Structures are given as structure tokens and as C-alpha cells.
TrEMBL record:
<dbReference type="InterPro" id="IPR006671">
    <property type="entry name" value="Cyclin_N"/>
</dbReference>
<feature type="domain" description="Cyclin-like">
    <location>
        <begin position="49"/>
        <end position="135"/>
    </location>
</feature>
<dbReference type="InterPro" id="IPR039361">
    <property type="entry name" value="Cyclin"/>
</dbReference>
<dbReference type="InterPro" id="IPR013763">
    <property type="entry name" value="Cyclin-like_dom"/>
</dbReference>
<keyword id="KW-0195">Cyclin</keyword>
<dbReference type="Pfam" id="PF00134">
    <property type="entry name" value="Cyclin_N"/>
</dbReference>
<comment type="similarity">
    <text>Belongs to the cyclin family.</text>
</comment>
<protein>
    <recommendedName>
        <fullName>Cyclin-like domain-containing protein</fullName>
    </recommendedName>
</protein>
<dbReference type="InterPro" id="IPR036915">
    <property type="entry name" value="Cyclin-like_sf"/>
</dbReference>
Length: 202
């Protein structure tokens, strides 16, 4: 979720506690095969890179991408899918995530999303896949991501600068946020981190 601005340190701590509760309820380690006829880790990583490009082209919030990848991994942990369906699953997760994170007017019509993403699936196929994903995930799409925790930890660092990093200026700590976010983006395509809780990745 996009983090609110102007929160106090106590409010951020409460938010972290909420995220940790969600993490305990829904997070499970995800493992992809290195070979075989199921979706491989390399194929999953290519799908993540593809979604990253789409997210950038649409100028969506990074939270949309992180939620989409989380939904993708959670779904593929529950379902044995064939590689030919991976792009359909990925774009469906992305579309679901965009409807949760983005403002309504920013979310393109599904037909436009198909065109802009060069996705070779029909509207009906993606809508059918959306329904399957929702059912498998019990309609629970509000998952906690590593980016949620990063925003909280960075906010706490800025709010408690005088105690934690007194030698750093507020401007220096503010500038650290985008840098950490960029590094976290790289982690999205690191399969070894799929067995790591989002709260620990940061």
C-alpha cells in the first residue's frame, strides 16, 4: 500500500505491527524449479522484469509492482501452472494490483493494458484468470510486501534521526529512501529471496 505522509513515529510502529500480523497470516516461502515442465525460476524472473517495464511505462506507483509480484508468487505457490500461461497469470496479477493501489482514473481498460503490454491473451482469458487468482487467494489481495516494510523502516529512521544517526542531515536521510527502493527493486528478481520474509529482506 502507498504509505501516508506525516505519520508520527508511534503511528509508523503501529503500521509495522499491522504489517507483521498480515505477514504471519499470509506469507509462505515460495520455491521454483530450476528445470522441468513447470514454471522455472528463470521464467518467473523474466515475467517480473516484464511487469517492471509495464509498471514504468504506465507510471504506476512502485507499490503496484511489488504487490503484483507478491500475488504472482503466492498464486504460483498454490497452483502448478504451465509456462505458456505465465504471462496471462502475471498480467492478471498486475491488473488486480493496479486496481488496489492506483487511483481509478489511472487504471487502463483491460483491452488497453493488453495492447500496451503486447500480451497475446484476450480480455476474456485475463478476466477468467483474474477469477481463478481471486478464488485461490480467497479474495485476500491486501498482502504485505518488502516495500511496505522498507517505507516504514525508512520513516522511522528519518523521524528518529537525532537518536539513531545524529551526524546525518534530514536531507541526506530523505535521499536514502529512493536509493534503498532501487536496491529493493533488484531483489524482486532474486529467486533465493523467495524463501525470505518481506520484513527481513530490508
Amino acid at each position: 500500500m502507498v504509505m501516508q505522509k506525516g505519520l508520527t513515529a508511534d503511528e509508523v510502529v503501529t503500521l509495522v505491527q499491522q504489517y507483521l500480523r498480515k505477514e504471519r497470516q499470509s506469507w509462505r516461502p515460495c520455491k521454483y524449479s530450476a528445470q522441468g515442465d513447470e514454471i522455472l525460476s528463470a521464467q518467473r524472473n523474466q515475467a517480473v522484469k516484464w511487469l517492471t517495464v509495464i509498471n514504468r511505462c504506465l507510471r504506476f506507483n512502485p507499490e503496484t509492482l511489488f504487490l503484483a509480484v507478491t500475488l504472482l508468487d503466492d498464486f504460483l505457490r498454490l497452483v502448478r501452472a504451465r509456462p505458456k500461461y505465465l504471462k496471462c497469470i502475471a498480467i492478471s496479477c498486475f491488473y488486480l494490483a493496479s486496481k488496489i493501489v492506483e487511483e481509478d482514473e489511472m487504471v487502463p481498460h483491460i483491452k488497453d493494458l493488453i495492447t500496451n503490454s503486447n500480451c497475446n491473451f484476450s480480455v476474456s482469458e485475463i478476466m477468467r484468470m483474474e477469477a481463478i487468482i481471486l478464488k485461490k487467494l480467497n479474495w485476500n489481495l491486501c498482502r504485505t510486501t518488502a516495500l511496505d516494510f522498507l517505507h516504514c523502516f525508512h520513516a522511522l529512521l528519518v523521524l528518529n534521526r537525532s537518536l539513531l544517526l545524529p551526524d546525518q542531515s534530514a536531507a541526506q536521510l530523505e535521499a536514502l529512501g529512493p536509493l534503498l527502493e532501487t536496491k529493493l527493486h533488484i531483489c524482486l528478481s532474486q529467486p533465493e529471496l523467495l524463501a525470505t520474509r518481506p520484513s527481513v529482506v530490508d
